[in-house]
Structure to design on (292 residues):
């Protein structure tokens, strides 16, 4: 089988991701003319045009888009295989973790995790906006909460329940009744990284939506929960992220928590699922999270 030239595939995949020859050239460290030449080479090999122009943006055709997705997956596998070949004796996992989960659940258990994993190095990368692993070729795995969605080529292992609910300081909670409608007089604290979380809680808890008197938005959940801890208003929080605050009485959950079906999952590429380092991490998460 005569395969397309690898450099042509790399250039094509980069143009598809960026929608721009210039940006692809910058990523690859070549001039624009070199990228154009590689695209022409690939089009000659495949016998068809790969792009149409939409204003200043290059848009791949339907077949080219499917080919680009396959090419991206293949290039990632090749890169990872090369990395492992060059660093065969090194055991390292680059793990994307939601910021709040990393700080309030994972990091307090870091010593136990490292002891359990031995020589395996875990590079924890906080994620302000949780995105699928397919969007992070530089990650080995990611931890996903209720936003987890299965996708082709990925393996997910559910390791812990996911519960969430409104939280507030004890002082503010004293002014609440058992009816969630009482929250209407409060300031709602919203994370832009999870803008639908409140709507999901109302729907999943069977609670009638509340029209809050004031609204404050924050860039991520960490800031929203920090505002809640200071008494600024009421935030919606995953229980796993604030267990320490609950035990110390800094925050309370006046309406309890509800369980989400998805739970927390470790997501990795199926091609990597049997790597010893990932197996060790998966086993530790299952023990520590206690998911059935």
């Amino acid at each position: 089988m005569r395969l397309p030239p690898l450099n042509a595939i790399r250039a094509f995949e980069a143009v598809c991701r960026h929608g721009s020859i210039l940006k692809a050239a910058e990523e690859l460290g070549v001039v624009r003319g070199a990228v154009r030449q590689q695209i022409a080479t690939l089009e000659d090999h495949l016998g068809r045009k790969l792009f149409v122009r939409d204003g200043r943006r290059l848009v791949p055709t339907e077949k080219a888009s499917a080919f680009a997705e396959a090419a991206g997956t293949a290039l990632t596998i090749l890169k990872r295989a090369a990395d492992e070949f060059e660093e065969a004796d090194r055991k390292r996992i680059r793990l994307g973790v939601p910021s709040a989960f990393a700080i309030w659940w994972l990091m307090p258990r870091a010593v136990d995790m490292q002891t359990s994993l031995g020589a395996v190095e875990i590079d924890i990368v906080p994620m302000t906006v949780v995105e699928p692993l397919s969007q992070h070729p530089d990650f080995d795995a990611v931890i996903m909460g209720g936003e987890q969605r299965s996708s082709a080529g990925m393996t997910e292992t559910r390791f812990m329940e996911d519960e969430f609910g409104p939280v507030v300081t004890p002082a503010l909670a004293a002014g609440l009744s058992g009816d969630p409608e009482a929250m209407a007089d409060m300031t709602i604290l919203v994370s832009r990284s999870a803008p639908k979380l409140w709507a999901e809680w109302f729907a999943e808890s069977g609670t009638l939506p509340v029209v809050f008197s004031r609204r404050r938005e924050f860039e991520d959940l960490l800031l929203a929960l920090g505002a809640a801890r200071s008494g600024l208003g009421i935030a919606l929080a995953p229980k796993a992220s604030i267990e320490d605050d609950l035990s110390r009485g800094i925050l309370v959950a006046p309406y309890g928590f509800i369980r989400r079906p998805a739970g927390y999952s470790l997501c990795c590429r199926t091609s990597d699922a049997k790597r010893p380092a990932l197996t060790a991490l998966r086993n530790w998460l299952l023990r520590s999270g206690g998911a059935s």
Notes: The two ends are 47 Å apart (CA to CA). The longest helix spans residues 62-86. Residues 52 and 59 are 5 Å apart (CA to CA).
